[in-house]
Amino acid sequence: MVPIRRPSRPARVLIVVAVALAIGAGPEAQERPHSWPLLHIPDPVGRLVARQALDLAWERLGKIECADLLNAFQDGAGRPLAQRLRELAIDRQTYLTMLSFVDGSRDLPCAHGSVAFTSTGSRVVRICVEEMKRTWQASPEHAMSRVIHEMLHTLGLGEDPPASAEITRRVLAGCGR
After folding, report:
1. pTM of structure
2. How far does Cα 166 stand from its chain's mean position?
3. What residues have CB less than 8 Å from 126, skipping those under 6 apart?
4. Beta strand 124-127 with 116-117: parallel, antiparallel or unpaired?
5. pLDDT tens digit sequence for 78-107
6. Closest Cα to residue 96, out of 173, 30, 23, 170?
7. Contact present, 116 and 143 (Cβ < 8 Å)
C-alpha cells in the first residue's frame, strides 16, 4: 500500500479556493434567483414586469458602485445601511431575495402615482402594478431604481430627508448603467 502524502499548506489553500469558486462562493459568483418566491402579484403581466425589475436590481446590487450606496445612506440612528446587513450576516443580493413584494394597487400611494412603497424597516414592499408596468416600459432603469429605493427603506432609511426624488437619483447614479 502506497502512503498518501498530504498536500503542502499552499497547495491546500489553492484547493480550497478552487473548490469555493467551483461551487459559487462569494457574491460575484452568485447565481441570479430563478424565481422570486416572495413575489405575490396576481396579475401575470405585472408579476413578469416585477420579476424583471427584481432581476435587474439583483444584478446591479452585485456591482461595487451600487454597494457603496449602502454606506452613503444611514438609518434613523445615523448608522450606515451596510451595517444593518453586516448585523444580519447577509449580502445585499441575498437580502433582496428575503423581501416580500405584494400587490399594493388598492392602496392610496398607488392612486397618487407611486411605483412602489414600504414602511421604514418593514420587509414588505408594495408594488403599484399598473405604474410599475408603465415605468418598466418607459425605462427599465427607473423600475430597477424603485426596487432598490424601497429596499433601502426596508433597511431603515427614512424619507424627507432625504427626499424621495433624491434617493432615486442617487440609486440611479450608483446602480444605473
Report:
1. 0.82
2. 18
3. 101, 102, 103, 104, 107, 109, 110, 116, 117, 118
4. antiparallel
5. 999 999 999 999 999 999 999 999 999 999
6. 30
7. no
Distance (Å, rounded) from C-alpha 171 to C-alpha 173? 5
Query: Per-residue DSSP letters for 80-95?
Result: BHHHHHHHHT--HHHH
**Coil, helix or strand at residue 117:** strand
Strands (E), 41-164: 100-103, 116-117, 124-127
Residue 137 pLDDT > 60, yes or no?
A: yes
Tell me how far apart the alpha carbons of residues 58 and 165 are, in angstroms, rounded to a whole number: 21
CB 130 within 8 A of CB 146: no
* Spans of all domains in the chain: 36-175
The pLDDT value given to residue 8: 56
The Cα 156–Cα 91 span in angstroms is 16
pLDDT in tens, 55-79: 999 999 999 999 999 999 999 999 9
Grid cell, residue 148, equals 432598490
Cα separation, 113 vs 117, in Å, equals: 11
